[in-house]
Amino acid sequence: MKKIKIGDKELGLRASPLALFYYQTEFNKDLMSDLMSLQSMAEINENDFSDFDSVKLLQIIYAMNRANNYGKEFPTFVAWLNGLEYMDLSDPEFILDAMDEAMDGFFRSLNGEYQKKAEEIKDKVSKSKSEKG
User: Fold this and answer.
1) How far apart are CA 41 and CA 35, in angstroms?
2) Is the pTM of this model over 0.85?
3) DSSP code string of 68-126
4) Integer Cα distance of 63 and 69 in angstroms
5) CA dist 24 to 34, 77, 105, 121, Å?
6) Which of 32, 40, 90, 114 has its CA 20 to 30 A from that of 124?
7) Is 67 exposed, middle or buried (0-12, 13-18, 19+ CB in 10 A)?
8) Could you tell me the residue ranges of all domains in the chain?
9) Parallel, antiparallel, or unpaired for β 2-6 and 9-13?
10) Longest C-alpha distance within the chain, in Å?
């Protein structure tokens, strides 16, 4: 389980089979295929998130957050979004942390390879920010 911060809220995420089920029932799509499309976008664009599907990312976060809150009453996706005051989707740390939980939970055997790639992307983004700032 991983915790991420969206705006002023800290959310627990759990990449588990239950998250797969919640994603399928809420969005009528497969979490794994959507996750892989996000992963491909991140790898291709590394520093440019302009083509990144932020709603898809939020849907994945929603399903993992719901799985983390199993047994508790949980809002619909739209109500959940409404409960978030603000967020910074341009923050690569936020995006990579959410993707990290998903990759760790759903692709354990590939996690070491993913971790290395994620660290490389974080380093490049940090260098790019410091050069601009």
Assistant:
1) 10
2) no
3) HTTTS----HHHHHHT-----TT-HHHHHHHHHHHHHHH-GGGHHHHHHHHHHHHHHHH
4) 10
5) 11, 13, 17, 29
6) 32
7) buried
8) 2-132
9) antiparallel
10) 47
